[in-house]
Specification:
single chain; 73% helix
Amino acid sequence: MRNPFRRRGPTRPKLKSPDDVMTLTEHLAELRVRIIRAGLAVILGAIIIVAFYDSVMRFLTEPYLDLCMQKGRDFCGFDPRSDEAPLVFLDPVEGLSTRLRIAMYGGLILAMPVVLWQAWRFVVPALHAKEKRYAIPFILSSVTLFLLGGVLAYLTLGRALEFLIAWAGDAAQPTFQISSYVRLVLLMLGAFGVGFQFPVLLVFLQLVGVVTPQMLIRGWRYALMLIVILAAVITPSGDPISLAALAVPMAILYFIAYLIGLLFQRRRGAEDALA
């Protein structure tokens, strides 16, 4: 039987998960675990890339070879029918450093789902229950958009190389250093992949209430200007073809993010009205 004279203290809120009572040290330990798991996934992906290094190099040089097949020997300075681009290295360790660079970037791409999942699992305790259910859609959309950005960069790489080689003039014959060529290709793939994450960030900010769809549509002119500037900054080649190939899809994705945010806003309003 309950004692009527017992003093009733403040009710302790029920914890939704153990993360709700984590101290700073425990949060740092959780972050360390997530980083280690993501790092192991990247290392595994890098090992796979190293195992198939020759196939990866043929894949990276294929846009250059296709361009030379179209333009002929006079444009590229070598016979494109050899199926091998004449990339040179000027340093004894350049071949090894290039292989490691390709392995690192390739491993990160292969491990992207694991990296995003670990990042989301670290952020989840700070989110509400309704926001946690968007974990899988966010990861799938992030990976898909990153791959779409990489595919677009790969498809436009030949046109970008054509523009850059043409500006060198007829007196110069292109002979690319392997590290410079690989760096350009990887940065192009990475820049387009990161640029295509822009709508995912906007949708996330709308879900957590940092921005609203109305704010996005009111500032669309400034957003388009910012998109062009951002595309010009992160595009490593600096040519107008790559800039347009990145800026136009980002602008389209901006308005798609606005529509998605507006849909979520209306659904949230309907749920609040029913409640």
